[in-house]
């Protein structure tokens, strides 16, 4: 069910782009097989994709299935997959990918940006440019990176390959095998200081000390963010009361539906926005998508604040005062959770997915209602005309 919901949401986003530009390819099966080549820029959504051929221009591809990048890619590559991505071909420019599971086994002449749950750079992989890797779980680096590298993972990073440029890493646990070789400077953020064997790092080693949780400047920043959200929330709920009420009601009645919609939108919107911005004719749509995404990220807190605040004000009557007090209580709790990252990060993710998902579903439902009202009014008018009897009025 969740997979079908993801595909439906992804298809809707691609349909929006397809209506704007005529060069989107949307199909069940897409194939540029080994030995084949395509010269034009390719924008593709396919349920199953074979891209083992040669692409002479940029490739933008999204699929819910596993994606194997085994071809020759002479332009930039943007790829997203619900199942997993494996790259063992030749990318002659930059590679930007998103997938739960990512495995890099081939050659990349430019830079790589990868976001996933687990990211593995295999021993036979060669990245000639820079690497920017963010994982929700683990990162394993066994290959060669000629440029600089930035790694971020909440569980563990394993260094077992060669990095010739400077390296920055952020993770609670880092492992260096005997094959690890960092030939530049190394900057890291970790709960404890690393004990490194001599010879692993050729340059300098610097640990970034995390700021104190109760540092006055940090607390002041959180307080200012809370006040800014409170000020922004007042005109939002005043100007859009129906959307706000529908969103809050959806969170209470269908939380999992909101979470799935928010999860899809929080990933797909910036991905398609950046894809659009990379093309000259897509810049206006890209700006619109990124702006909408940024607004919903912020407004999701307002909606969730109302839901949280109302839990404490059940006995209070309905009034504008109750709404403002509920929003204040909710926002205070949401921003208070950010004081402690271990609590704040999952809270912020839940707020984002629930709030953004409810806003999107509410906007869709509101549009449906707006379209249905004129039709229902016409039906009422027709029934009235059919039952109208002028003799009854005269009598």
How does this model look, in words?
The protein has 395 residues and is an alpha/beta fold. The protein folds into 2 domains: 24-207, no CATH class; 216-381, no CATH class. 45% of the residues lie in helices and 26% in strands. The protein is built from 8 helices and 25 strands. The chain has helices spanning 2-20, 216-239, 241-253, 255-277, 283-312, 320-337, 341-387, 390-394; strands spanning 24-31, 37-38, 42-50, 54-55, 59-63, 67-69, 72-73, 77-81, 85-87, 90-91, 95-98, 101-104, 107-108, 112-121, 126-127, 131-141, 144-145, 149-152, 156-159, 162-163, 167-170, 174-176, 181-182, 186-189, 205-207. The strands form 2 sheets. It has a 16-stranded parallel sheet that branches. A 9-stranded parallel sheet has the order 2-4-7-10-13-15-17-20-23, with no helix packed on it. The radius of gyration is 26 Å and the shape is flat. It starts with a helix and ends with a helix.
